[in-house]
Every structure is written in C-alpha cells, then in structure tokens.
C-alpha cells in the first residue's frame, strides 16, 4: 500500500511538472487578458489580486482564491514572470495533474492494464483543450477535476460524497452544477437498466444539485454580484445564436476552430473503443456533453463551448484512444510474429 501511494504521488508530480511546462507561455510570452477568446481571465486576475470583486464572474472563486497565497509568496520574486498567472498556473496544474492521475487510476481499474491506463493520462494532457483552456488563466481545470472525482466516486459505488463535490464544483464554476447533475442522473438511470434501482442514490444526486444551487446563490450574494442564478442564466442568452431553434448557435459551436482542434482527432479515435468502457460512464459523459452543447448554443459560445464539452468527454475519450492504440499495437505485434514463424 505504501508503494502504491508513493507511486501515485510520483505520477501526480510528473503530471504537475508537465502541466507547468504546457502552461508556461502565460507567464511571459502572452497575456491571456488581451486574447479575445480568453477575456474571462480579466475577472480571475482581479480575484487573485484582490481587485474588483463585483464582476460578472466574481462567484467563480475556487481557483482564484487558492491562487491568492501563491501570488502573495511569488510577487516580486519571479523576475519577468507574471506572478498572478504563475499562481493561476500552479493551481490549474494541480487540478489537471489530479485529473490525469485519477484517469490513470480509473483506467487501471477498468481495463486492468497499467500501461494502457498511463497512456490514457498522457493522451488527455496532449489535447488542445488542456493547454489552451485549462492552463491559460481560466478556472475550467477545477471543473474537469471534480467531474473526474465524481467518475471515480461512482465507479467505486460511493454515492454519499456527491453533495461535497457539488459544493466544491459550485465554488469553481456555476456550469458545473447542471453538467454534474445531468452526468450523475444519466449514470443512475443507466445503472437502473441493469437492475440496480436504488432511490437512495437518486436522493444523493438531488442533494448534490440542491447544495450546488444554494452555494452558487450564496456566492453571488456574498460577492455583490449583480446576478442571481436565474438572472445570470438569462443574461447569458444570445439572440445571435437563437435562430432556427438555436441550431445556428449550435452550428457555430461545432465549427469553431477551438472545437475542431479539441475533437478533430480525439473524437474519431475515441469512438472506436467506447464499447470496452463502462456503459454508465459512456452514457453519463455523452449526456453531459450534450447538455454543454445546449448551453453553448443558448449563449452562442462558439469556440468557448469546447471547454465544457471536453470537461464531460475528455477523460472518457482519452482512455478509449489509449485502448485503441495499445490493442492495435498488440495486433500488429501478433501479425509480425506469425509472419516470422511462417518465414522460418
């Protein structure tokens, strides 16, 4: 057990260092606040420094508040590096590394092959969304991590921690609440079809949604946000994407460059081995991704829709890609062995 724990710590450290390298450009090569697609980072920057706390996204406090002590320690000691984005990178790298580590643990539990699970973790880190969303002064890393924590919790048949993840997810970003609700409910429905109907599990899902909504409401009130959850949702509506029953907004999400870079290789390769993974996870992730796309169409998010869709599907597809790569290599090795035997 001690060796297993030590190995997990070593793996997380490895992933953390890789993440720091992937996010390095934010330290002194470009300022995310000046990039149109990353404009939300202005608000997160202010939350870290203790500046304006009443902005549109002032209730997304988990990552910025965890970054504050890192910023206090780093300020004045980093030469040309931006201390705020260094602090955000440290916290985001922590969450992304935790996500990849949990994916490796879940993959080993599911497929029973450590190298396959390990490759899944590296495939996840290699995706466009990790370096360009999760490690670029945003807060999506915490959402991804808590969704992966929920996957691990449900894989191990522990439903009682769901309300705790609901609170932490709501502290990270309000979109976690509906995504996690859809994910957990779809997982529960799929498990019911296998004959394991348990309404106590549904009660835990309800508690998760309830505490999540309460947390978001309290955060908006305490941060002097001009919104409540309902008015915030209403303010995000974009008429530009509402044409043809929101199909125009959906189309702009799907053809955005960010969406294509994120899923152009991950989706087609990942679809091949989804049948080898737990049906509950596949259905839960798919439903959450569809919910993310629906929200993206509602706000006409265009390329920004790639982030939440990746939050739902990224770990699942990464593990499926790993299975495809490993099994293809094994099949090729068997064929090579047969050819050598025939020649001999």
Structure, explained:
- With 344 residues, the chain is mainly α.
- The chain has one domain (2-343).
- Helices cover 74% and strands 0% of the residues.
- It has helices at residues 2-22, 25-28, 41-49, 62-74, 83-111, 114-126, 128-134, 140-155, 162-172, 176-193, 199-222, 229-235, 243-255, 257-263, 266-270, 279-299, 306-343.
- The radius of gyration is 21 Å and the shape is globular.
- The relative contact order is 0.11.
For the structure shown, list the relevant keywords.
344 residues, 17 helices, mainly alpha
Question: How much is the radius of gyration in Å?
Answer: 21 Å
Q: Give a count of the beta strands, DSSP E runs of length 2 or more.
A: 0
* Shape descriptor: globular
The percentage helix is over 70%
Distance between the termini: 46 Å
Largest sheet: none
Count, helices: 17
Mean pLDDT, to the nearest integer, reads 90
Q: Give me the secondary-structure category.
A: mainly alpha
Q: Give the percentage of residues in beta strands.
A: under 5%
Low-confidence stretches: none
Q: Tell me the number of structural domains.
A: 1
Q: What's the SSE pattern?
A: HHHHHHHHHHHHHHHHH
Secondary structure elements and pairings:
Layout: H1 2-22, H2 25-28, H3 41-49, H4 62-74, H5 83-111, H6 114-126, H7 128-134, H8 140-155, H9 162-172, H10 176-193, H11 199-222, H12 229-235, H13 243-255, H14 257-263, H15 266-270, H16 279-299, H17 306-343
Helix pairs in contact: 1-5, 3-4, 4-5, 5-6, 5-8, 5-17, 6-17, 8-9, 8-10, 8-17, 9-11, 10-11, 10-16, 13-16, 16-17
């Amino acid at each position: 057990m001690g060796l297993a724990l030590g190995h997990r710590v070593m793996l997380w450290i490895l992933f953390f260092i890789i993440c720091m390298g992937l996010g390095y450009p934010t330290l002194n090569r470009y300022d995310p606040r000046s990039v149109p697609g990353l404009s939300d980072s202005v608000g997160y920057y202010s939350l870290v420094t203790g500046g304006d706390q009443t902005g549109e996204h002032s209730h997304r406090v988990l990552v910025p508040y965890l970054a504050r002590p890192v910023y206090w320690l780093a300020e004045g000691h980093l030469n040309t590096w931006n201390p705020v984005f260094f602090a955000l990178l440290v916290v985001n790298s922590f969450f992304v590394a935790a996500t990849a580590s949990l994916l490796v643990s879940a993959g080993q539990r599911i497929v029973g092959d450590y190298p396959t699970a390990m490759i899944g973790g590296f495939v996840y880190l290699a995706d466009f969304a990790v370096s360009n969303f999760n490690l670029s002064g945003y807060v999506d890393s915490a959402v991804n991590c808590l969704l992966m924590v929920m996957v691990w919790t449900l894989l191990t048949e522990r439903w009682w921690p769901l309300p705790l993840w609901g609170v932490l997810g709501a502290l990270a970003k309000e979109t976690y609440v509906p995504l996690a609700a859809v994910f957990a409910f779809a997982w529960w429905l799929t498990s019911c079809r296998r004959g394991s109907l348990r309404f106590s599990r549904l009660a835990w899902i309800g508690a998760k949604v309830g505490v999540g909504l309460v947390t978001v409401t309290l955060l908006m009130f305490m941060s002097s946000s001009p919104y409540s959850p309902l008015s915030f949702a209403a303010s995000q509506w974009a008429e530009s994407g509402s044409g043809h029953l929101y199909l125009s907004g959906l189309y702009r999400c799907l053809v955005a460059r960010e969406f294509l870079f994120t899923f152009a290789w991950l989706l087609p390769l990942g679809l091949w081995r989804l049948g080898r993974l737990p049906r509950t996870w596949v259905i839960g992730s798919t439903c959450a991704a569809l919910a993310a796309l629906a929200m993206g169409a509602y706000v006409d998010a265009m390329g920004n829709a790639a982030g939440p869709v990746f939050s739902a599907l990224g770990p699942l597809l990464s593990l499926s890609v790993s299975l495809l790569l490993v099994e293809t290599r094994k099949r090729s090795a068997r064929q090579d062995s047969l050819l050598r035997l025939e020649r001999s």
